[in-house]
């Protein structure tokens, strides 16, 4: 399955997380998900500004390749996979599916050298809000914990307005958007190279 996602993100503090949770998600239970990030040891996928992961939510495993198109706009390739893939030393090409293999090979990424580089666990709250999806995440990876506010919209202009309204309401400073996978990979590189 291929889809386009329009999203806005901002890292927030623990206090801002609590304020937003208590305002928007007071009656909503969180759910838990784990992202397993896949790349070559020399991070060819990351170096092409792509992201390949397996996400586990409630015993369901989805392989996703994210390809940025424009600011806030991403094409995503998804497929359901078997949990057994997590036990393999390397990810076999046939596990990826034709669409994902084609995107990777177009960029000369070595699809025979893919393996899981690590995982990131998230406690996630979600709710519909003003024709979009409001998401609040607490993520754990290596020795890090961070907090993120996200808004998924149907179009960039409306999404930007709604997201900025939320930030303004809570007096949150807009920060550079650094997606979860990039935060994970920065920490991975730091740990590998000391």
Give a quick rundown of the structure.
This protein is of the alpha+beta class. It has helices at residues 14-24, 44-47, 98-106, 156-169, 180-193; strands at residues 2-12, 31-39, 51-57, 60-70, 73-80, 115-129, 132-141, 144-153. The chain has one domain: Hypothetical Protein Pfu-838710-001 (Beta Barrel).
Task: Describe it.
It is built from five helices and eight strands, in the order βαβαβββαβββαα. The longest helix has 14 residues, at 156-169. It has 194 residues and is an alpha+beta fold. It has helices at 14-24, 44-47, 98-106, 156-169, 180-193; strands at residues 2-12, 31-39, 51-57, 60-70, 73-80, 115-129, 132-141, 144-153. The model has no long low-confidence stretch (mean pLDDT 94). A hairpin with a 2-residue loop joins β3 (51-57) and β4 (60-70). An eight-stranded antiparallel β-barrel has the order 1-5-4-3-2-6-7-8. The chain has a single domain (2-193), classed as Hypothetical Protein Pfu-838710-001, CATH 2.40.320.
List keywords for this structure.
Hypothetical Protein Pfu-838710-001, alpha+beta, 194 residues
Sequence-ordered SSE layout with sheet pairings:
Layout: E1 2-12, H1 14-24, E2 31-39, H2 44-47, E3 51-57, E4 60-70, E5 73-80, H3 98-106, E6 115-129, E7 132-141, E8 144-153, H4 156-169, H5 180-193
Antiparallel strand pairs: 1-5, 1-8, 2-3, 2-6, 3-4, 4-5, 6-7, 7-8
């Amino acid at each position: 399955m291929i889809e386009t996602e329009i999203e806005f993100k901002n890292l927030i503090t623990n206090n801002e997380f609590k304020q937003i949770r208590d305002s928007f998600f007071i009656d909503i239970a969180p759910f838990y998900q784990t992202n397993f990030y896949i790349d070559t040891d020399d991070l060819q996928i990351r170096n092409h500004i792509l992201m390949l992961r397996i996400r586990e939510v409630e015993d369901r495993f989805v392989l996703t390749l994210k390809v940025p198109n424009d600011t806030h706009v991403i094409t995503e390739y998804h497929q359901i996979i078997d949990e057994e893939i997590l036990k393999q030393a390397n990810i076999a090409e046939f596990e990826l599916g034709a669409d994902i293999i084609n995107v990777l090979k177009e960029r000369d990424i070595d699809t025979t050298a893919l393996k899981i580089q690590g995982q990131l666990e998230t406690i996630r709250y979600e709710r519909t809000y003003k024709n979009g999806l409001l998401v609040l995440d607490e993520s754990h990876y290596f020795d890090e914990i961070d907090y993120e506010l996200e808004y998924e919209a149907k179009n960039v202009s409306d999404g930007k307005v709604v997201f900025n309204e939320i930030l303004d309401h809570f007096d949150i400073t807009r920060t550079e958007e650094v997606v979860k996978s990039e935060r994970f990979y920065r920490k991975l590189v730091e740990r590998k190279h000391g």
